[in-house]
Amino acid sequence: MLSAVAIALLYIGILVLVALAALKPARSPIYLSPEALGAKTEDVEFESDGRVLKGWWVLHDSPRAVAILMHGYVMNRSENSALAAALNRKGFACLLFDSRGSGKSDGSRVGMGWLERTDVVAACRFAQERLSDVPRVLIGASMGAAAAAFALAETPDCADALVLDSSYHSLARATLGWWRFVGGSAACVGLGPVVLVAGPFAGFNPFKVNVGRALASIKKPVLILHGRKDNLAAPFHAERNYRSATMDGSKNVRIIWFDEAGHVEARWTRPEEYVSQIEQFLVDMDVVKPAP
To answer: Most buried in the list 67, 129, 197, 199, measured by CB within 10 Å?
Structure first.
């Protein structure tokens, strides 16, 4: 009996340690910038909940819009450098930044997209101060996509359109995909219960974090990009997000599938098509004017 209790306590202790590690992952280094890819770039910073967030402003003399780019879990603004450079060539100014607890920004933990929603709103305000007379477009990858959806749902005036790349639908279900991704079925079974103990350390209830509910309330144009071979946020996440976004019969929602792409891979494997799909969607929805 005592040995069973000891084993149970040890297992719970392991789950707690894994939860803490997941909420405070190692910071990945800055490895690429839009400047390195030929886009004129300026170092910037702004505050979110008292935290200083570091970023890059990609300049354009006469921008069609400002693209505000959010990175994924355990990543930083470098993840969006190539996309920013490509959008800049299409006539967009861009804001890339490290969300809390990532890159060079302040913060001791990440919030899996939920806490980062306030970082996104702060970024939108910063972009509005820099360029008040052009549309703002939120483009997020994975965790950053979820953060963008939560931000726009809570603060509808912060942006004029939303692009979700490889977003999860339910955070609780997404954690299972993460464990399967890093360690296969055994890790999924063994570490799946981490989400049950993570709430007190995260500061929110993971089971209530749902991108679909956010999308159901958003009235702005929404583009969903997802890989058919995504084994982290499986395709059903995108399907459910699309259904949620179109519950009211909205015609300003579009989903684009990349058949051979995995998680956030299409921007690397099909870059021209990826950027063209974003640009065409924004033109079709009258968010931006066609390129001259």
So the answer is: 67
pLDDT in tens, 193-227: 999 999 999 999 999 999 999 999 999 999 999 99
Which CATH number does the domain housing residue 226 bear? 3.40.50.1820
What own/partner pairs with CB < 8 Å and gap ≥ 24 does 54-57 have?
54/97, 54/98, 54/103, 54/104, 54/105, 55/95, 55/96, 55/97, 55/98, 55/123, 56/84, 56/94, 56/95, 56/96, 56/97, 57/93, 57/94, 57/95, 57/130
The answer to the question of residue 290 being in a domain is no
Strand 65-70, strand 136-141: pairing: parallel
User: What's the pTM value of the predicted model, to 2 decimals?
Assistant: 0.95
**Closest C-alpha to 151, from 116, 202, 102:** 116
Mode of pairing for the β-strands spanning 161-165 and 92-97? unpaired
Torsion of CA 37, 38, 42, 45, to 10 degrees: -20
Residue pair 77/148 in contact (Cβ under 8 Å)? The answer is no
